[in-house]
Amino acid sequence: MAVALLVALSGCRIIPEGHAPVSAPPVRYGQAYPGAPGSGQPNMGGPVEPTPPAPPTAMALGIGPGPDITTLGLTAANAGPALVSFRESCPRLAIRHDISGLTTPADWQSVCAAAGTWPLADAANFFTSWFDTAVVGSGATYVTGYYEPEIAGVRSRQPGYEVPVYGVPADLVRARPGEALPKSNGDMPFGRYDDAGHFVPYFDRGEIQAGVLNSRRIEIGWAADPVEFFFLQIQGSGRLRGPDGGIIRIGYAAENGRDYSSIGAGLRARGLIGPGPGQYPGSMQGIMQYLRDHPEEAPALMNQNRSWVFFREITGDGPIGAMGVPVRARVSLAADPNFVPLGAPVFLHLDPALAGATVANGLWVAQDTGGAIKGPNRFDSFWGTGVDARTTAGGMVGRGMALVLLPRGVVARQAALVQPQGYAPQGYQGQGYQGQSYPARSYPAQTYPAQTYPAQGYPAQTYPAQGYRPQSPAPQSPAPQPYTPQPYTPQPYTPKPYVPQVYPSQGYVPQGNGAAR
C-alpha cells in the first residue's frame, strides 16, 4: 500500500497481497435484529444483511483505445527499468484474478513468457510489440508521491528511543465470513473477537498510544521521534537507523482495521494550512513542522487518525508492495486495482503547469495499492529512500493523462463490450508525450429494437374449499355469482367423556448463537 503525501495527507501503504488497508471500520453483521452478533440476544433466525453493492470497476466505467503506443517515445532508458519490474510482477500477474475486469490470466501468459527473455537494451520494442494503450474513463489522472522513510530507531529499548514499533498482536485477526462486511477486494477486515466471541474493531491509535499493548512484548524495534514514526506508518514501510549506523528494514504486516483519517485536512479546515502569512505549507514537510511547533497539540492531532500499522522485519531489495514483489524508485505506482490490473504498465503524461510534476512523466508499473488511492486514474508514485526521495514525494502533485498498457487485442475486445463514458482529456490540449495528438474518438449511438411480449394468461386453477386461492397478476373484478340458499340440516351430537392427559414437566432450554465460536 502506499501513501499520498499531499495537502490532505491521504496515504498509500506498502503491503503484501490481500492486505489492503480497510476502507471502513468493521461493521457488525445484521446489528438491527435480535440475535445478531454483538446484540447480546439469542439468534432466532433473523434476516441476513444484504451483500453490499460491488464497487465501480474499469469495465463499468468504460475503456477505449488510446494513442498508438509507438508515439509515446519510449527508449531503453525509460523502458528498461519498467521491463525489470514487469518481469518481477509476472508470476502473480499471470495467475491472479483481475478485479478491474479488464484482463484474464491467459491474456498475460504469452506477454510474460516473452518478457522473460527480452533484452533490456531493446525494452522499448518489447512494450511496442506486445501492448496497446487504453484510456479508462476520461483518462484524466491525479498523481501523488510516496517514499521509504529512514528514521532513528533501534532494536532494543534504550534512553532516547521510547516509541514502540509493534509487530502483529496475536488477537488481531480477520473477521470470519458473515460477521463483518467484506472489503472491496473481497478480503474480510481486521479486528478482534471480544470475550463474548463477537467480532469488534481493534484498538485505535489513541488506545494503543495509551499503552493497551504494552504488556504484549511484541515490539520489533523502538523509534526516537513519535512524529517521524507517525509518518512512517502512513508510508507503510521504512528503515530504522541506529546510532551505530545499523539498519533495520521494516514493512507492513497488518493494520488495526480503522479508517485512515487525514490530519492535514483538519488543519486546512482550521485555516492553518495554505499560502497565506502564518500558514503552513500543505506538504508533508509543512504538516510535520506544525506538529513540531505545537508539541502540546501533536498527540491529539495524530490520534485523530485512528489507523495503526503493525510491522514485520523484512530483507531484500526494496520495500514489498501489494503484489508481494519489491517496489522500485521511479518505476512502481500504487493504483486502485478496481481500475488497473496490478502488474500492468502505466504511461503518465502530466501537465507542466504544476511545478515538478513532469518528473513523473513516462512509463511505470502498477505494483502497489493504498488506502487513499481510490478511483480511476488515481496513482501514487514511489520515489525510493533518502532526502531527495522525501522531498520529491512530499511535494508531488500532478494532473494530466494516464494510459494503461494492456496486452495486444484486449483493448479492442473490451471496448466492444462496454460503451465508454467519453474520452475527454483535460488540461493538456490533447498533446501526447512527444507532442503527438491523441486521436479523437467517437462512439456511435446504439439503438435497440422495441420488443413486444405476448400477454400471458393466468390459467384458472381449482382448489379444494380449504385450499390456497392464488391471486391473479392484476386484480380482477369477479363477476357476480347468484346465491342459492342451502337448507340447514341439524346433526345429532353425542357427548364424549373427558379423559385428562398427563404431560411430563418440560424445562425451557434457551437457544444461543449456535456453535461455540
Averaged pLDDT: 77
Strand order of the largest sheet: 3-16-13-15-14-17
Q: Count the DSSP helices.
A: 11
Q: What's the helix-strand series?
A: HEHHHEEEEEEEHEHEEHHHEEEEEHEH
What proportion of the residues is helical, as a percent range?
10-25%
* Straight-line N-to-C gap: 32 Å
Low-confidence segments: 1-54, 419-478, 498-517
Structural class estimated from helices and strands: alpha+beta
- Shape designation: globular
Strand segment tally:
17
Q: Strand share of the residues?
A: 15-25%
Give the biggest beta sheet.
6 strands, mixed, barrel
Radius of gyration: 31 Å
How would you describe this structure to a colleague?
- With 517 residues, the chain is an alpha+beta fold.
- The protein is built from 11 helices and 17 strands.
- It has helices at 58-61, 76-93, 105-117, 123-130, 205-209, 226-235, 263-269, 284-293, 298-303, 387-395, 410-417; strands spanning 63-65, 131-136, 140-148, 150-154, 163-166, 173-174, 190-193, 199-200, 219-223, 237-241, 247-255, 309-313, 332-335, 345-350, 362-368, 378-385, 398-407.
- A hairpin with a 5-residue loop joins β7 (190-193) and β8 (199-200).
- It is globular and about 60 Å long.
- The two termini are 32 Å apart.
Outline the fold blueprint.
Blueprint: H1 58-61, E1 63-65, H2 76-93, H3 105-117, H4 123-130, E2 131-136, E3 140-148, E4 150-154, E5 163-166, E6 173-174, E7 190-193, E8 199-200, H5 205-209, E9 219-223, H6 226-235, E10 237-241, E11 247-255, H7 263-269, H8 284-293, H9 298-303, E12 309-313, E13 332-335, E14 345-350, E15 362-368, E16 378-385, H10 387-395, E17 398-407, H11 410-417
Helix pairs in contact: 2-3, 2-4
